Amino acid sequence: MIEIDEAALDALAGEAPEGPVVMLNLLRFRPDGGRESYRRYVEHLRAGVHQRYGLEVVYLGDGGRALVADEGQAWDTVALVRYPSRQAFVDMVRDPEYRAGAHLRAEALLESVLQPTVPAG
Question: β-strand 77-83 against 109-117: which pairing, if any?
Fold first, then answer.
């Protein structure tokens, strides 16, 4: 699954809307121009949406060979993106300006994991 559905957004917003959330992004790109399409998606975010919703890229890195994983579970890119709250993330994804460029993300990815995380402890 690549797209975020409305039920998942509602569930995320209802879990704990106060406090920051860091979204873990595991990305596997399509071999036919996926990286380029994802780069255009990131440029779309930087053009204005990211400032409006306070997102901050905490870490972005290319994946290497997985040392411990089932076959096929190595990822092309790993990103950690911090949002001021779950609601900020939900509002961003529902923003028409964001949605205007969301197709670039979908076109870029063969497979993806998008998981909210909060500090342990």
Answer: unpaired
pLDDT at 13: 85
Residues of the chain with pLDDT under 70: 1, 16-17, 121
End-to-end CA distance of the chain: 30
Helix, strand, or coil (residue 26): strand
Concatenate the DSSP letters of all residues of 42-103 into one string: HHHIIIIIHHHHT-EEEEEEE----SSS-TT---SEEEEEEES-HHHHHHHHH-HHHHHHHH
CATH of the domain at 85: 3.30.70.100
The domain in which residue 45 lies consists of 6-65+74-117
